[in-house]
Amino acid sequence: MAPQTLADLKPGRRLFWASVAAWTLLHVILASVCPVSGDEAYYWDCARHLDWSSFDQPLLMMWTMNPFRWVLGESALAVRGPAITASLLIAVFLLGLIRRIGGGYREAAAAYTLLHGMPFFFVGAFYLSTDIGMAAAYLAATWAAVAVAQGQRSGWWGFGLATGLGFLAKYPAVLVVPAILPALASRRARRDLAGPTPWLAALMSLALTTPVWIWAVQHSWDNILFQLADRHKSSGPGVKYLGEFVVANLLLATPFLVLAMAVALGRFARRADAGRWVVVTAAILPFAFFGLISLTTRVGAHWGGPGLVVATAVLAVTPFRGRSWLIRAGVVLGVVLSILIVGIALAPERLMTLEWSYPGRPGRVNTEALARIVGNEDITRSLAARRRPGEAMLLTSYSDVHLYGLLSKGELPTRLARITGGEHGLASLYWYEKDDLLGRNALVASEGHDIEAELRSFCRAVEQLPPIQVVRQGEVIRSVDVFRCTEITQDDGAFTR
């Protein structure tokens, strides 16, 4: 194929940047209008209580939220600013990787558009999560590893930077590290090992992870022990969770695009090339690792996301018979599913009359879960009206405690009361001094738990107030129990750690 001239490149360059601008504008619009979730509010509260790290997450995405908060205030767009930035970086890194594996601006524009044909990215591109930051770093590390395989020594620095920052976004970013091994099939890459560059880059990468280890030393290694022992307890061997993982990824990426990517990866790998094997390895690693983990415990449906992002780059540059049909079918289905997801978030009340549930996870995926999206602003206002001056504001739900704080623009001083169990979202227990609530009065709210008996063991006196009820079309769809606690008498790990 003849080399492209500058005149040939210009239309493709304009197409790429126009598509990036259009998608970014859509991300901004959706980020502004869609309601903030409890997880996103949790990250917002972490950004308000900055530390080296936290109990259950590294804090890169939280640290980078603060510039947006300073400019945009306590808004949904500010909360999601880091996600939109990460999505924009993914576009840039896609371009870099695709140019390394034989494509150009047009293929990069196609790949970025294809990503939006998958619900996991269409929604994830504006929804704040640690996953979108990790995916950007994972893609950047893959690009850098291909550069190493192709003899570019500076690629080692890029690989070290991306893996270190990826670890600070979300721990599983380290899964990209084995992708550097196929690069060593290249003689030029192996020669680099005799010099200082790869080893200094590795030291730089390790140094970037220092905040996590500082926090670990300060807090008896609670964050590391939680990841290794507590977060994913084994349920015994079986294929149920593996089936969930596979089916969920088929839905999040559509069966058509998954099939297209699988065929593209197979064809792409036929040419024995170190750079190509780097890409194939990076695409497969998340699915192989979490597929094995799912044989004993439930894993997140979206945890294969970084592999899907890399595989999309391969699909964009690898032609095969039937590719166009699979892509069109996948994009149509994906966009329909994405619009449905956004529609549910914007107007959940219209779907609450439908009765359905998935018995594998009835507490998370069913019709009743939609009610949790409705009435949060009403509940926040009611709690603010009932709280007396000087009272602590305690909630038993790790998501509600941060969500109501965000919806009040930070004016409602909400804190977690861990008296109903749970292992997630416990970072806030480390933000306060032990026993700092002793002797204080508190307004306590809980939804879905009978906490009066437990609450009496923490307070000198407990008064149950009328519940806060969310009513729609004459029917109570949510009821929040509210208690007035007089003089907190003990902590016992419920309010601090």
Describe this structure in words.
The protein is 55% helix and 8% strand. The protein is α/β, with parallel strands linked by helices. The chain folds into two domains: 12-343, no CATH class; 375-488, no CATH class. Strands 2-1-3-5-4 form a five-stranded mixed beta sheet. Strand 4 and strand 5 form a beta hairpin. The longest helix has 28 residues, at 6-33. The protein is globular, with a radius of gyration of 24 Å.
Blueprint of the fold:
Layout: H1 6-33, H2 38-48, H3 60-63, H4 66-72, H5 76-100, H6 105-115, H7 119-124, H8 130-149, H9 155-169, H10 187-192, H11 197-208, H12 210-218, H13 222-230, H14 240-253, H15 255-268, H16 274-293, H17 305-317, H18 323-346, H19 376-386, E1 392-395, H20 398-407, E2 414-416, E3 442-446, H21 452-456, E4 459-472, E5 475-488
Parallel strand pairs: 1-2, 1-3
Antiparallel strand pairs: 3-5, 4-5
Helix pairs in contact: 1-5, 1-6, 2-20, 4-5, 5-6, 5-8, 6-17, 8-9, 8-16, 8-17, 9-11, 14-15, 15-17, 15-18, 16-17, 19-20
CA gyration radius, whole angstroms:
24 Å
Shape field: globular
Helix content: 55-70%
Structural class: alpha/beta
How many domains would you count in the coordinates?
Answer: 2
Query: What would the average pLDDT be, to the nearest integer?
Result: 89
Widest sheet: strand ordering: 2-1-3-5-4
